[in-house]
Amino acid sequence: MRKGDGEVQKIEVGLQQAYRMLNPGFVVLLSSAHDGRQNVMTLAWHMPVSFKPPLVAISVAPTRFTAGLIQASGSFVLNVPGCNLLPAVQYCGTVSGRDGDKFSGAGLTPVPAKKVEAPLVAECLGHLECRVAATHEAGDHLIFVGEVVAASAVERLFDGMWRLGDLEGTLPVAHLGGTHYLLPGKRVHVTSYKDPAGETRFRCLAD
After folding, report:
1. Angle at 89 between CA 55 and CA 87, to 5 degrees
2. φ and ψ at residue 166, rounded to 5 degrees
């Protein structure tokens, strides 16, 4: 809907839904373990925060079973699922690990990580093993800053960035909110060129 002057009409967004305007980001399966207990939960609130050292931040409610495991062990793993795992992703975001073995319930396989106590999810496309470097309170959540101490990915799907080819079942997925997800489209890149006046411009091209 447009006004007469061409300005796009905006609507008010409820504050409880405002964060969804910053989505979509790839949804991950966050795994953790301590003292013989392990868990996996669905997580959309995560981001890289530093190159050197390589740091990521995740936001988890302190009431979550996972939060306690991370605090006790000082480690976690971010596992990147493909869209073929969406039923498991939804399950892991719905059921509490206090109530049973979520790996078994979701049909997922925990395998030992290289450098941290938390397990990898074998069926996922890639993994970031992290040791907790700092913890911060943020409203009703805890922000865990993790240093990435090991990382791995399926070779044919990652060449320094995700290769979004025709293997649809292996595409990472973005979380829009609730039970809604988004598959990525084609990969593109931006290149620069000079216009007739000699000014630098940019255009988008398919890879």
Report:
1. 160
2. -100, 10
Measured in degrees and rounded to the nearest 5, phi and psi for residue 111 equal -130, 150
Domains and CATH numbers, the chain: 18-206 (2.30.110.10)
pLDDT for res 65:
94
d(CA 193, CA 147): 38
My answer on whether omega of the bond before 53 falls inside 30° of 0, hence cis, is yes
Residues ≥6 apart with Cβ < 8 Å to 47: 25, 56, 57
Q: Are 127 and 152 in contact (CB under 8 A)?
A: yes
For the stretch 34-90, pLDDT in tens is: 999 999 999 999 988 888 889 899 999 999 999 999 999 999 999 989 888 999 999
